Amino acid sequence: MREAQVDNRVVPYEMSRLVLETVVPDPTRGAAVEVRPWIDGRDVLAEAFAAGPGSDPGELLGSDGSLLADVEPHEVRLAAAECTEACCGALYVTVRREGGHVVWSGWRNPDEQEVGLPEFRFDAEDYRTEVERAAREQRRERRAHPVARLLERHLGWHVDWAPRRGHDR
For residues 145 and 10, what is the distance between their CA atoms, to the nearest angstrom? Predict the structure, then answer.
């Protein structure tokens, strides 16, 4: 357990580990690409918000993505209901930089009284590295996704072209 200065007092904290997973759904279902944050092995969206998918990678990642941390706290929408936020809510977190840490706190869902997730602290350098890694992965997937859809569509029309295992001689 480590300690940090918060409002002129020393408080204990544990360092958490963040993994940002970009999920590319089955294109035939029409679902959107989403970012799923995993903290210490926990899928926080599955735990705290089941009404809709995670936010689009283009909003969260990259050089101007909302997950980037600064000393000025800012609220980030991590997920929104499939219907509308006004109907079934969304999941928000406040992201801020405190010295060598990035802090996620102030969890909020406009549709719920309490979200039930604690404050998480990340090593700032590890956090930045993970956001940059996820952004690079997301850019590669965005370029490959249209090609995969076209190939799937084309090959699906010509099933008789595909060799059958054991019958291609």
Answer: 48
Token pair 């009284």 is found at: 113
DSSP element (H, E) containing 88? helix 85-88
The lowest-confidence range among 38-52, 93-107, 145-159 is 145-159
**Is 103:121 a contact under the CB 8 Å cutoff?**
yes
Which has the closest alpha carbon to 49: 79, 7, 29, 25?
Answer: 79
Amino acid 16 reads: S
What is the token pair recorded at 112?
Answer: 């719920």
Q: Cα dist. 115→33, 47, 110, 145 in Å? A: 24, 9, 10, 34
